[in-house]
Amino acid sequence: MYSVVRVCCVLLSAVAFTACTNAPEPSSPAPSSPLGSAQVAPPSADGIGDPYYPNDGNGGYDVEGYAVSLSYDPATKVLDGDTVVTSTASDALSTFNLDLIGFEVSAVEVDGKPAKFEREGEHELVITPAAEVAKGAKFATRVRYKGEPQPSEDKGLGAGGWQISRSGGAFAAGEPHAASHWFPVNDHPIDKATFRLSARVPDGWSVISNGIEEPPVAEGGWTTYTWVEPNRLATYLTTIGIDKWTFERSTLASGTPVVNAYAPGTEDKKAVQARMPEVLDFLSEKFGPYPQSAAGGIYLNENIGFSLETQGRPIYAKWAELEVVVHEQAHQWFGDSVSVKAWADICLNECFASYAQWMWAEAKEQANLDDRYRTQVARNHERERYWNRKLYDMGAGNEFTAVYDKGQLALHALRRQIGDPAFDRLLEGWIAKHQDSNASWPEFEKLAGEVSGQDLTAFFDAWFRSASEPADEFLYPGSLRK
């Protein structure tokens, strides 16, 4: 994710950092132990076990794939959905939950047999199958639902869900949770799954989503668009865009299909997106081969507060420029391919995507990163409200703050601490080790120590686990020390 707050900070950085770089001292931080697996919660639990968002996700099963079928009419704003969730039970399940916000649910089936269901709280769909699902069994849950999707009421940075575009179409995007606004889901990044979307819209409208497109099918004044993502993804990385898109189709040199979609009024973004293959080539040199099944971008004519790394095909706000493309494409490795185990680990996504912008500036614009680093440190020296934002285990609600600016400094300091060869091996090795899975910040610290041959405990404590300015020995390592 790249926030408009971050853009504000970049524009103002030549003068001073304003309140847009500040965050409150984390209050009541959650325990630092990350989720170890998707089965940390008890059977039938209404949360997967993340202390930051206790009600996100659900216990007792692991999702293998989502097959979402829907019809949506922009004239009425009504969505008619039919979703099949294929899962494996990690415990015997007499009941289990899915996350779904709003809608009237008309029927639920488990393995083809009618199941009882009820709604609890804001987003819990509690399902009681006709017969208990045995531990280790693979089972399919079908949910039919209808209604007008509702946007998130959370106004914090990254909030989204289902939103109406100025053209009258709609799109879904947001972090840390958005998928439950339009289909039933186990809504936490630890439970990654494949994704298939078939969306039926009136002729004249079209649909963009994740993955590889199948030929559209027209019938009776409606057209069905189908998109298939064979790579497992975290649920907040799913998306749908319904608009009168202008499509561009091509392939990367590797043969990976590329689909770009431009909403009416965003045709000027084609020049920015034309550099995406160059960006991916650069990032592949740093992080390893491009890890997604498809590539591209979705350009909205909307001034939303963020752009988002929806898997394989990021969503860009109207204000997005090349720097944002670099950031969101870096997420295809850091965040999408290797996803967090818990939201306390968010630096694994945002710190690295933000530092990728520095790496791009160094390689393509001959930026002197040591000078840039020293300037930012000097500007914020003794600014307690800049340094008191933790980069790991920062507390719920503080995830999308320091990771965009302090995170860049911390990673550059790490690079100078261990040297360029070790830093390069660390980035590529991290992706290779955890591709298509989830990982935690403590695991990154461990790998960094192994790759560098250094005891980095004090360094990581100073930069990532503490809410204060690092001591000079950690603030100015290697070539940063004059």
Question: Could you describe the 3D structure shown?
Answer:
By secondary structure, the protein is α+β, with helices and mostly antiparallel strands. The chain is built from twelve helices and 23 strands. The strands form six sheets. The protein has an eight-stranded mixed sheet with strand order 6-5-9-3-2-12-15-14, with no helix packed on it. It has a four-stranded antiparallel sheet with strand order 10-11-16-13, with no helix packed on it. A hairpin with a 3-residue loop joins strand 7 and strand 8. The chain is globular and about 70 Å long.
Sheet with the most strands: spatial strand order: 6-5-9-3-2-12-15-14
The average pLDDT score comes to 91
**Per DSSP, what share of the residues sits in E-state strands of 2 or more residues?**
25-35%
Helix and strand composition category: alpha+beta
Measured as a percent range, the helix fraction is 25-40%
* Sheet with the most strands, sense and barrel status: 8 strands, mixed
Specify the number of helices. Answer: 12
Which stretches are poorly predicted, pLDDT < 50 over at least 5 residues? 7-40
Cα-to-Cα separation, first versus last residue: 35 Å
CA-atom Rg in angstroms:
22 Å
Total number of strands: 23
Shape: globular
